[in-house]
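Help needed: design a sequence for this.
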């Protein structure tokens, strides 16, 4: 690319981004301006693995760990919680640089987006976010995009209804959120057998089937007595989880009937309405109470239709997840059909994040982020193709 072409591309990117921000503001979303330098702890504790390993970290004179913001959702949420509007319905838009290590690509790049807090009409708010995300891609000249959706709340409801040991529940949900091979891990847990006698057998037997709080308390006390806070780089939390996993596996493998149900669940994909039918059939056959989660999905689909979204062109998958630990429900990504690897827009519902960030009461939250760089490149290619 020549210098002139690069300059035109940068100018086009800025113009498109500014127009996008203006459209968000006209829709009632107030522009937010969170600080670039942020406390690192929320990102280390609450983000997905991909973000955690790409952070730019530093430490101030007091020893507090800080980072350049890798994303804008958590900073906007924290500013909202510190404001007078905390707990009340409020919507914010943003446009600014974020910082992540991305291999051979620039570590600083523009991100735009919307965050909506406090709305109790969750299904309607979810549909609004998807509709606004589609408007964002259309603003860059892209109308033919692939819509991928999922709902982590459905998976969580399934695991809860199966009444598994707490350690299995955490293990499966962690795998789902982090985009590792969930099916592979399910197979491993299915075939798991108890190890032979070892010096920890009594402790493992005492922990079998216990909750994480009890295990963490025990491990913390034992490590305090030993005068240590970590072993081999593992934290107390990680060691407690390992003890729980080993104690539970001593009691036998993941039940095969539960495995069959999970596999059937994860195979559901395609048209959203057909997926609802399959989910209700699964719940009925397995005698599981998934009604609330399925009803929420069906309600969301109805609001999507009301927003003019052609759900026949939307792919729903029960196994779809975005790899961020704080998502609690609806998740979505928009991809270019010509290059579907990297998302152009991604978002979802994160109701649990607000209490994790310090809110005394739960606050519904949903939003999305727009990757300006990717949209600009595709928008310019589309414009050049049309001109030719």
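Sure. Designed sequence:
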């Amino acid at each position: 690319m020549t210098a002139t072409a690069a300059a035109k591309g940068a100018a086009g990117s800025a113009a498109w981004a500014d127009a996008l921000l203006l459209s968000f503001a006209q829709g009632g979303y107030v522009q937010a301006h969170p600080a670039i330098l942020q406390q690192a702890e929320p990102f280390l504790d609450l983000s997905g693995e991909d973000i955690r390993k790409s952070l730019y970290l530093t430490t101030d004179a007091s020893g507090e760990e800080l980072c350049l913001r890798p994303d804008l959702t958590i900073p906007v949420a924290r500013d909202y919680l510190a404001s007078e509007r905390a707990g009340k319905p409020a919507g914010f838009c943003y446009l600014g640089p974020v910082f992540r290590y991305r291999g051979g690509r620039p570590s600083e790049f523009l991100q735009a987006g919307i965050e909506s807090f406090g709305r109790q009409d969750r299904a309607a708010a979810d549909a609004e976010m998807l509709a606004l995300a589609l408007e964002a891609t259309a603003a860059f000249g892209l109308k033919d995009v692939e819509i991928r959706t999922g709902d982590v709340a459905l998976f969580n409801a399934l695991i809860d209804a199966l009444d598994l040991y707490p350690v299995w529940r955490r293990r499966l949900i962690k795998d789902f959120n982090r985009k590792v091979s969930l099916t592979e891990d399910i197979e491993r847990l299915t075939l798991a057998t108890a190890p032979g006698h070892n010096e920890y057998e009594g402790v493992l037997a005492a922990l079998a089937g216990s909750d994480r709080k009890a295990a963490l308390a025990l491990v913390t006390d034992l490590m305090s007595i030993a005068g240590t806070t970590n072993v081999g780089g593992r934290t107390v939390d990680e060691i407690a989880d390992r003890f729980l996993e080993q104690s539970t596996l001593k009691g036998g493998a993941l039940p095969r009937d539960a495995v069959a149900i999970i596999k059937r669940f994860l195979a559901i994909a395609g048209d959203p309405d057909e997926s609802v039918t399959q989910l209700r059939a699964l719940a009925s056959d397995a005698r599981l109470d998934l009604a609330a989660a399925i009803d929420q999905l069906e309600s969301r689909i109805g609001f999507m239709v009301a927003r003019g979204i052609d759900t026949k062109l939307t792919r729903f998958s029960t196994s779809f997840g975005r790899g961020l630990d704080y998502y609690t429900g609806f998740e979505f990504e928009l991809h270019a059909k010509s290059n579907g690897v990297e998302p152009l827009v991604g978002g979802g519902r994160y109701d649990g994040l607000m209490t994790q960030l310090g809110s005394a009461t739960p606050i519904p939250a949903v939003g999305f982020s727009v990757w300006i760089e990717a949209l600009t490149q595709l928008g310019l290619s589309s414009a050049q193709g049309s001109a030719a």
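The first strand starts at residue 30 and ends at 31.
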